[in-house]
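We treat protein structure as text, and this decision shapes the records that our systems exchange. Because each token names a local backbone shape, the row as a whole describes the fold. For reference, a complete record is included directly beneath this paragraph.
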Amino acid sequence: MLIGNVGVDPEVRYIDQGVAVASLRLATTERGYTLKNGTQVPDQTEWHNVVLWRQLAETVEKYVHKGDKLYIEGKLHTRSYDDRNGNKRYVVEIWADAMEMLSPKPQAPAEPQATNANP
């Protein structure tokens, strides 16, 4: 379970038979504090790769943007690949099972009130 902020607009693509897959980067921050001896411990931010499938991905495509706060529930998934130099690299992702949008809905701009142009 993670609560964090989206770092960049999600990337959504469609694979076999129109299945939607969304990828996003989620930042979680552990707030800093001051020790009894006065030592400052700074904030620590971690970045997580999140993958959402099907309906969740379609929801992300429509409603989630950079800076939005999300609650993500899922499981860890590790994959590997070979880089350009032939070195094996590993990527840890969170495959989301559930998501909840925590940012308030943006307010629609108020319509201008009619003014009487005739004095």
